[in-house]
Specification:
Elements lengths: L11 E4 L2 E9 L13 E6 L10 E4 L3 E2 L5 H6 L3 E3 L4 E4 L3 E6 L2 E5 L15 H12 L8
Length: 140
Amino acid sequence: MLDIKELRIGNYLNLNSQLFKVKKLSLNGNFYSYEIDKNLVCGCYCNPLPCYREVECVSTKDLSPIPLTSELLEKCGFVYENVFDSYWSPDLRYLKETKEGFYLYDNENCCCRISKSIHFLHQLQNMYYCLTNQELNVKL
């Protein structure tokens, strides 16, 4: 189950095997107090893009994260560099895949890790925003 505190508006997740984009978050039922599960995520389906206009509110227990893959990184604008065996972005520098997940490094030598492991798209979106103050351009 996802922790609602890990999510931001604009994050992409899976809902019933469909792409779901977060549009609104409710921690402890601040806007739907009559709901049994008070941690709600409101968003829209995005298959195919662009996202539908209808907003549906669901429990975090119904959502699942999108695993981060090489293909997904490339759709987010990262470029694979054979020489360094890592993915490069001018804004985030280097992402290298390990057994524990992807890690962000400050240079091509991958000697100074500057993140904890990143396993899911929403984590990468959040890290990107935190470090650049811009939304990650995700082309799914």
